Structure formats: structure tokens, C-alpha cells
Amino acid sequence: MSSTLSKVNASAATLTKNRTMDSVVPTSGLCVTCVDGCIGMCEVGKSAYRGHEVLYPQPFGVITTAAEKTYPVDYSHFNIMGTAVGAHGVEADSDKAVFPAVNLEVRFGHDNGIKYRYPWHIPGIGSTNVAKNNWEGLAIGSALAGTGLTIGENVAGMDEDAVIKNGRVVDTADLKRRVKLYQDHQQDGYGAIIVQANVEDSQLGVLEYAIEKLKVQCVELKWGQGAKDIGGEVKIDDLSKAQCLYDRGYVVLPNPHDPDVIKAFKHGAFKGFERHSRVGMVNEESFAKRIEQLRRNGAKYIFLKTGAYRPADLARAILYASRYKLDLLTVDAAGGGTGMSPWHMMNEWGMPPVHLHSLLYQYAKRLSDRGEYLPALAVAGGFSFEDHIFKGLALGAPFVKLIGMARAPVAAAMVGKTIGRSIDARQVPVYVARFGNTKEDIFVTAVELRKRLDDDTFEKLPTGALGLYTYYERLAQGLRQLMAGSRKFSLGYLSRDDIAALTREAAEISNIRYIMDVDREEVDAILG
Q1: Strands (E), 85-178
Q2: Helix spans in 155-258 (H)
Q3: Binning pLDDT at 50, 70 and 90, where does residue 292 land?
Q4: Neighbours of 515 (CB within 10 A)
Q5: Tens digit of each residue's pLDDT (9 = 90 or more) over 69-81
């Protein structure tokens, strides 16, 4: 492994590169020979003329981003343990203990009233263009799959068509559309549409509006995210919208009402304004009041999402979630995001996934051992495949019920949408065309969905939804196979013994057994 864990000063994320690609100083990231006369291709050089713009991954609005930092321990440092003996959750009969028999349904909430077909959901897609432009696929695909989807922060506040009276939102266009797209395609009560609120959303009364007017049952308070420890950020390329958001109380840089700024923007000196959200100020008294307020206003289920903050903040989050009887606590680890997070912040701040999720298990066990109430727990932070899901659930068992994923589902929805456009244009790429030229040929779940839905409904499905649904179907089958190999035929049987640490350091951090120590007592009993 390289002696440095970070990649500095040149990245596809910031559209920068070194001049001397094969000879770079590990600490600074500068070229070994920095030459007078270079046009500034690296991040330092680009910052010399674009300044703060280079803080953020680019191009904004069409990308999601994740850190390049290599952490000392990650989920690849664990392996899944299988066995040749027995079965849990089904009869130990080779004709019955087949992987399609694995039950992936999960129920949670104070009354076990929320049910998902699969143990994952999307824990927050907010006001960014990449979310808005792919919402059809994300909402419809999630609803058809029977999993949850969270409408992230600032959606109502960013909506130019939202009606705000006396500082409170009374009507929306975008939030209403997002909720309805999910609700219209939800089947048999599976899944949930969740509306999230940050500081500005709370001031605008977004959750109260969602509960009363949009009949949303699940709402979520937000204490940050894994990508950054400041408020949400987006770029605005329209002057009037920047002014509207400034007038609504957002932090907008530079000031869109400043005559000199307006002149510079119209001249093309810069291409967009930055809209920033404020940081929250957590204290138990105001938290308790807010939970009481939401329940009084009709919230059936209340969630909390927290980010990759220091351990004391994680302790506060799980204690408050326990004390005030929340239904779900999501803990998002450092390293990735779907919006405009400062690039170096994404790489260099916060608790990495294995470290944070291990602490979460420790804190949950302390409360559980005391007989305290515990909400369902969800963990997030770079999960994308069935093996990740298995490991995350096992590391946090029995407290972790869900895995949160955002970038991977967005990628699936974007690919599905792009394929649909190529079909409409009759320009299906060769790589895809080997499977056919229609969505029935290309998307492997199309036959099943057409049978499950009526022809008219299927024909109207956006291909972004097909992309997400098909990706989820792959995850489900892959997870069933892994669970069957561990002889666990229902999620409730997963345990920390189902994974093993490949290094002593991973074992020390997670308290998961080192692989050479697994089954030691049973081995002694077998061999005598």
C-alpha cells in the first residue's frame, strides 16, 4: 500500500491533473518539478485563476462524487463466512433450503408498520439537479421494488413555484411532484416515501406541509451527511433564482443583488452562484420539542439522519433516538455524496464507514444491555453491491436493519434513462445493442414487470425506473445467494459471526473475530 492514504492536487473530480504524471510529491501532490510557465493544470494552478470554484467537484449537476481517500480499514477487510451444515429459517433439507427461499423482507417502526421488500433504501436525494433530473426513475423504481426513498433537504426552498406565506410553505410544485410520483406507483403498502428537513426546511415548515397536505407518514430530521460537516450546497446558474433564494433566507454567494456582481455575472466572469445551507445547532431540549411538535402535527413515523461526526455526536444521536422513541436512525459515514460537497472535505473529514459503524454497534449494545428502547438502525457510506449489504447488516446485527445507498441507485437510474434516450433516438450503443434495441430486450426484468403490471402501465414506465428496478433485482438475488451460503434464510438470523476480519486491525476496530480465530471453540469440540 502507498505510504499516503490521500490523493492530492489532481483529480477527475476537480478536472485537474499533474504535468509530471509519474513523478508527484506524495504529501503536497505537486509535480516534483513545478515549472515557471505552466498554464496550471493541477489543482493549485487552477485555483490561481478560478479560486473557490475549485473547492467543488465538477461539472456540477450531472455528477455524483465520492472520495478517493484509501482508508486503513474498509469493508473489503472482512469476508463472509459460509457453512456446510444446517439451515436457519427453513427446514434443513436440500430441496427446501434453496436460495430463492431466502426472505429479504424487513419491518420496522415503533409498531412494525413500515415494511420493505428489501433491506435497503435511498437515504436522501435533495435539491441538486442530478436528483431532480432523475427523480422519475428513482421514485417509480423504488416504489415498484417496495423499498424506501427519501426526499432530501431544501427541495421546497429551492422550488421557485413554491408558495411561501409569512415565512411558511403553503404549496409546492417540485415536492408535491416527487411525493406523488412515488405514491402513485407504491404497491401493496411496501416501501415508504420520506421527507427530510434541515435548518431552512424546519424554518419553512416543510415537514408540517408534507404531513398535512401531501399525506406523508414518514418524516426525517437531518444532522448532516457523510460527505460534509456543513450545510447543503448547490450551484445556481440563473440570476433571478439566486435572488429568490437569497430573499428566502439562504446564504447565496456572491450577493446576487449587488450591482457589481450582477454586472460580472452577465459579462460571464463567473458562471454560477453558490447556495449554502446553515449548520444545525443540536441540543436535547430543542430536539425534544421538535419531536413533540411533529407528533402533534400528525407525523406517524419520525426518523433521524446523522453524518460522519465525531463519536460524541453519534452517542447523542443514538441516545436521543432512543429517549424520544424515534423509528429509524441512519448513520452516514465519510466519503461520498450526491451533491456539491467540497472535494477536500469529502476526502479529509469525518469517521470512515467501518470505524463509525463499529462505534454505532458498541453504543447500541450499551443501550440494549440496559434495556433501553432502540429504533431500527440504518448504515450508509459507499455501499453498492450485495456483499457490502451483507457485511453492513452482519457487522451491525441485530440492531442494523437497513443499508442506505444513494450514489449506486442514482447511477442505475441514470444509465436506464440514457439507454431509453438511445432507444428513442434509434442509436443504441453497440455495447448495449448486443442485447437488442427495445426496452423489452435490453432490460432483463421487463418480461416480469409487464406480467405484473398491465400493458399500458408498463409502456409508460420511464427507463430510469427500469434501470433502478433491475439493479435492485440483481442485488436481491445476489444477497439471497450469499445468505443461503451462510444458511441464513431470513434477515433476522444474520449475526456478527457471519463475517470474519481479515486483518488484526479490522478485528480490533470492529470486534469481529479475526479469521484465524473463527469457530475456535467449535473446532476444539469437534477435534477433541
Answers
A1: 106-108, 114-116, 120-125, 148-151, 163-165, 168-171
A2: 155-158, 174-185, 199-204, 206-213, 239-247
A3: very high
A4: 16
A5: 999 999 999 999 9
**Other Cβ atoms within 10 Å of 470 Cβ, number:** 23
Instruction: Name every residue whose Cβ is closer than 8 Å to that of residue 94 and which is 6 or more positions away in sequence.
Output: none
Residue 391: which CATH number?
3.20.20.70
Residue 141, number of CB atoms within 10 A of its CB: 31
Number of residues that this document lists for the chain = 528
Q: Grid coordinates 456540477 are at which residue?
A: 60
- What letter would DSSP give residue 451? H
Dist CA 418 CA 422 (whole Å):
6
**What type of residue is 302?**
I
Is residue 62 in some structural domain? no
Side-chain-side CA neighbours of 172 within 13 Å: the count stands at 26
Q: Quick one: pLDDT band at residue 277, thresholds 50, 70, 90? A: confident
Which residues share a beta bridge with 404? 121, 380
Alpha helices in 283-332 (DSSP H): 284-296, 311-323
Q: What are phi and psi of 123, to 5 degrees?
A: -90, 15
Instruction: Specify whether 213 is located in the same domain as 261.
Output: no
The strand ranges marked E within 324-375 are 328-332, 336-337
Task: Pick the closest to residue 198 from 251, 258, 136, 140 (CA basis).
Answer: 251
Mean pLDDT of 146-160: 93
Contact, 187 vs 147, CB < 8 A?
A: no
Q: Is residue 61, in this structure, part of any structural domain at all?
A: no
User: Nine-digit cell at 396?
Assistant: 451491525
Residues 222 and 241 in one domain: no
Mean pLDDT confidence for 433-437? 95
Residue 33's SS3 state is coil
- Would you say residue 374 lies in a domain? yes
Asked if residue 3 has pLDDT above 70, the reply is no
Tell me the three cell numbers of residue 489. 434464510
In which element (H, E) is residue 369 found? Answer: helix 353-369
Share of the chain above pLDDT 70, in %: 99
Domain of 467 in residue numbering reads as 67-232+277-528
The Cα–Cα gap between 487 and 46 comes to: 54
> Is residue 26 located within the same domain as residue 131?
no
* Residue that is written with C-alpha cell 441540543 in the block: 283
Based on the structure, what is the number of domains in the chain?
Answer: 3
Report the mean per-residue pLDDT for the chain: 94
Q: Residue 1 pLDDT more than 60?
A: no
Which tops the pLDDT comparison, 176 or 343?
A: 176
